[in-house]
Amino acid sequence: MVKQEQESTNRPDNTAFTQQRLPAWQPMLSAGIVIPGFVLIGLAFIGIGVALFVTSRSIQVLEIDYTGFENDSPCFKCSDPDVKNCICKVDFTIDSLFKGPLFFYYGLSNYFQNYRRYGVSKDANQLSGDLKYFKEPGDTCAPYEFANGKPIVPCGSIANSMFNDTFKLYQIVNGSKKQVPLDGKGIAWWTDYNVKYRNPSVTPLKDAFNGTVKPIFWPRPAYELDPSDSANNGFINQDFLVWMRRAALPNFRKLYRRITEGDFAQGLPAGNYALEIAYNYPVLSFDGRKTVVFSNVSWMGGKNEFLGIAYLVMGSLCVFMSIVMLIVYAKFKFPEEE
């Protein structure tokens, strides 16, 4: 008797919801629904794929390798790691207007920024401006924590390997050089510049680095990364932020500058150009390559033919499967559906 009373107490209310008597609808996936559905989805995918592919093909890209591996390369003399402060010049020609806004990238190949030990070799507290970690870098920075008994700021493998080639672009007009203005403002992610990385609250910034040393392979300390703009120094330097956001693949490009100002706001006119390169970054020791890439963008972003091809393939498969299902249905349909 007691057991029956306990079961009655624990029993859900006798309602349509608790007793699962609510009305329900279950779609019946018949051939009349599935086959037209596949056709419509396939046609939609094909339309999107054609739009993406045509748009991607319209994007202009110019890639120039300046590694200097070949003997006839203009940067061959600079590829020798024993040669310091080397400058080489690469000439190229543009046949038609390279429409703006134009983006200027540097590219590296066979460079594994996604290697785990490399990726964790930094001190997040130090990079957020905490002065305590200027004197005592975290163990994660090994082996670039100290140099000559002094702490390295910023420490770690990522910062130490920062890309430091610099570029100047000139248009050649009647034998004279006209410099193309390169805009380096706002090339880093907003979250990196405003949230993730911060400079210490010390004025002048140089005083925060007292008793520390710069990374081993840096030509100048962090507070002098951009001598022309005092607001673009320290851990919020745009080039530094771009480098610290690691690439996922071994062949990658990173944004260096934009070409959006002056006479070149509409792009690079047809003509002859010279790219002057301060060659500082060695890559031949690990069989790497260095390139510069000029590219414009569209509503879909940068050049990416894979996305359009993927949509075309999936759309074609949907249409093909709808034809196969139609043939199968016409041949083996159930008697009651005749």
TrEMBL record:
Organism: Seriola lalandi dorsalis
GO cellular component term of the entry, any: Golgi apparatus
Protein name in UniProt: Cell cycle control protein
Pfam families to which the protein is assigned, alphabetical: CDC50
Subcellular compartments: Membrane
Family assignment from sequence similarity: Belongs to the CDC50/LEM3 family.
Claim: Membrane is one of the keywords in the record: yes
Transmembrane segments: 33-54, 309-330
Coiled-coil residue windows: none
Ribosomal protein keyword on record: no
